[in-house]
Design a protein that fits this description.
The protein is globular and about 40 Å long. A two-stranded parallel sheet has the order 1-2. The two termini are 15 Å apart. The protein contains one helix and two strands. It has one domain (1-101). The protein is low in regular secondary structure and 101 residues long.
Length: 101
């Protein structure tokens, strides 16, 4: 499903095709990246602050493919943990029925 607005929970169905060549996402220590969550790309220079956000981004990257491999690298800087009750990254592409990422 392709979503155009992260505040919505509905979108358009898209056909899965091909295989992803692979991607790498980075997670830094909490509160290191002050950028708005939806604008974080997950590169080494623009790392996610929380592991959950990187996982959701990985699902977004893999959603349009029949098969995808995403590597998440946790940087060795400061504490890392999963925190409940916070706003998490909202993927704009998702497949909740046949996720192959």
């Amino acid at each position: 499903m392709q979503i155009t607005d992260p505040t919505k929970s509905y979108g358009s169905c898209i056909l899965k095709a091909g295989t992803s060549t692979g991607s790498i996402l980075y997670v830094d220590s909490i509160t290191v990246n002050p950028n708005p969550l939806q604008s974080i790309t997950g590169t080494s220079a623009d790392s996610f602050n929380y592991l959950e956000d990187a996982i959701m981004k990985a699902y977004e990257i893999g959603a349009p493919f029949l098969s995808a491999q995403i590597t998440i690298i946790i940087k060795d800087v400061g504490p890392h943990y999963m925190k409940r009750g916070r706003i998490i990254y909202k993927p704009l592409k998702q497949d909740s029925n046949a996720q192959t990422t």
